[in-house]
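User: Can you fold this complex?
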Amino acid sequence: MKTPIRLVSLLAAAFVAVTASGGHAVAQDIKIGTVLSATGPASFLGSPEEKTLRLYVDKINAAGGVLGKKIALVVYDDGADPTKARTFATRLIEVDKVTAMVGGTTTGTSLAMAPIFEDAHIPFISLAGAVEIIEPVRKYVFKTPQTDRMACEKIFGDLKARKLTKIGMISGTDAFGKSMHDQCLKIAGKYGISILADESYGAQDSDMTPQLTNIKNKPGIQAVVNPGFGQGPAIVTRNYRQLGITVPLYESHGVASKSYIKLAGPAAEGVRLPADALLVAEQLPKNDPQRAVDVAYKQTYEKATGEPVSTFGGHAYDGLFILVNAMKRARSTDPAKVRDEIEKTKHFIGTDGIFNMSPTDHLGLNLAAFRMLEIRNGDWKLLQAAR
Amino acid sequence: MRALLSSRWTTLGLLCLVIAALPLVFPSGYYYRVAALVWISAIAAVGLNIFMGYAGQVSLGHAGFFGIGAYAVAIGPARFGLNSWLCIFLGVFLSAALAWLVGRPILRLRGHYLAIATLGLGFLIALVLANEARWTGGPDGTAVPRLTIAGARLMEPVTWYWISGGLLTLGTALALNLENSAVGRALRALHDSEIAAALAGIDVARHKLRAFVIAAVYASLAGSALALFDGFITPDAAGFLRSIELVAMVVVGGIGSTAGSIVGAGLLVTLPQILAVFVEYEQIALGLIIMVVMIFLRRGIVPSARRLIVRRAP
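Assistant: Here's the predicted assembly.
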């Protein structure tokens, strides 16, 4: 019985020793923390975020740092587990004593961490989608990605411009699909859209023909909207064409990656979706203010990592620079002063859009941040803003 | 020496000592938080060990009961205005009732079939929690109202360190007591051979069911504790990975040993924190350590260590 107690004490000692040393940062460095889901089910989101943060922190440091100091990035991987995320958030605040945090890959982990940063008065810029993170407004919590409500608004706006008002919905039951579905239902009335059919499917389902048949058989449907994520929407798209449904199909920003086009194949032709300008960086008109930022980020990221750019990494880019700019304006790394300056972010051109934050809006993006794309010849095509 | 090592008082005494002594070396709330998470996981692991270690059965869906306990304290107060304390017991009651209902048919199965049935049960609970968004908040999770005592909200890691530590001590005492009771002996008998146990007059089905229900109660309590401690819960708490993690705690620590379950929980909760400094290699190191433990300490950490000491002792 002696060995286990020795083991426990050894473990405890190692634990205290390793955590107390808090990485290799020098005392004068500005510590920025990040808790990301770099492994686990959300790694396809967390991994580009981590690469982006590391890449740009190195770049900033090589160019002389911020306020004459270097940035030390403290990275923890929560594996998309909210309990772990909370533990790491506590660690960032109490052990690493960070100035601010840019991270929180999923809505679940972000919502789990938000109260901790709020209590500790440390700014937290989340990289997750759902509107609940910033509504109601928490003083110290911000976020960079467009919300799923904005995606619905963008889609409904486009529908209205095409005079299509009776739609069917088929939504994934995963976190993303569910959240966006609920937001769409909430705002449909505002756009004069009536939802005649409301179907759903599981994230792992491999055939959505029954649900789509229900939609097809409902008379009067003029378009179909599919909030979803991962492989589900690709199967919906294939089944949609197999059933010979001819009304327009709208996907969400959740499929804004080349793998969707690959999975859905020719069936994806003509599908419309709201997405980041980043996806069509090179197609943006010369006078578009976002063009320079998007093209630069895309080229830098693709050159450094050898991977195609994703919008998720773009969220991290925006979060990091909103924070860095706020520190520069505050001429301080005091968390409270930095927070005040983050809230005053005006006309910051990021990959997600142009940010104008305020005490009541801790996101600061408007609908212009989403572009309406159509898939043509197996590639994204930027549609002219429908007005 | 041998007597001292196998005495249940030794395990219990050491546990109390560790719980009482750790705060002496803790510099901040973060350490209390990690330790509290260890105690909470250990409660579930000690319970699972009664089913796996004493009775020799397999449950791959045990996090389901953990999830029921967690969501009982989330849904009850927020949607029905029930008292959080009452909801803890409601969760325990629900878990026990479900374990009893489902356990009656599925505990007739053996080996792989039982493992698959429990696996299915776990998946079903996690699915319900993720899909019934009206009640559970869906896959993004839901906030859990804090527990209050005499108007004070319990949310500090230090408070939860003592609450969960106390719960674990109580749970351990009961588990050790059970091990040395008639029921414990009956469970071990059916662990060795169900046929022999039946021939000796032991009601095999009833004892298996009893162990399953007890294990479900432990998991439910641990789930409620985690939800109230974190103030936020997602369906991952009931997920397959969490079930496997619980089984791993029992197996790595030493199946059949209550002290082992606690050590296993300690190892699996603290290792990711210790290894977090080496972000890129964390997963590799974690896997390697668990592999090495399973290869060189095949009976699990605590039983292997105990054997080593007994062999060396004069």
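Chain B has 15 helices and four strands. The radius of gyration of chain B is 19 Å.
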